[in-house]
Amino acid sequence: MEHVITGFKTIAPSIPYIINGIWVTLGIALGAAIIGFVLGILLSLCKIGKIKLLSGIARAYTSIFRGTPLIMQLALAYFAIPQLIGLNDVNPTTCAIVTFGLNSGAYMSEIIRSGINAVDKGQFEAASALGVGYWPMMRDIILPQAIKNILPAMMNEFITLTKDSAIVSTIAVTDMMRRSQIVSAEYYMYFPPMFVAFIMYYIVVLILTAVGGRIERRLSRSDQS
Q1: Would you kindly state where each structural domain of the chain is located, as residue ranges?
Q2: 136-143 long-range Cβ contacts below 8 angstroms, 24+ apart
Q3: Which top CATH class is 2-224?
Q4: Distances (CA, A) of 17 to 11, 175, 185, 201, 222
Q5: Does pLDDT of 225 surpass 70?
Q6: Which of 33-37, 122-126, 148-152 has the highest mean pLDDT?
């Protein structure tokens, strides 16, 4: 135990450096969540639409991104594809955000699709009876109701993105995980710096979970009133 305490005292000057990596972590998760949300809406509308080609493409996209490891997708995007097309300078943070966003879009599309399917069919019929077009109906009537119903699931997806973002350390993005590895190599000790990152991830997830729970309770009260 004394050895562990000594280790924490040794790395104390580097602890703020590790903790500040949380902004990189949250930035990647937020950027990916925005891309995933927009892409998820487009894919979900294609899936429930009547154009078979678009529906098939959307389902194939979802199957590929949900059926392969995220770390493999990240490796392909950062190492393999740039080499294939002759691109030498790839920004790792941008690559991470785009890759995570494309992956999240596949999961978000299923979440949004289930939300749309949960909307009362009478809403569709009423809009059609009033002569509202398909896209205006989706934009102004159906999607707002669907998104309200799936906000807790969307929050869970954001939490998952935040946790999974630790793998961006494999492409040298200086998030919390990568910073803990750098500090570990600097001091030749692994437990103290990685435990700091471990606790910070846990705290962030607890905060996001509490926020998600609060949103869910507010939505429940609004539905009851």
Answers
A1: 2-224
A2: 138/45, 142/116, 143/41, 143/112, 143/116
A3: mainly alpha
A4: 10, 10, 14, 15, 42
A5: no
A6: 33-37
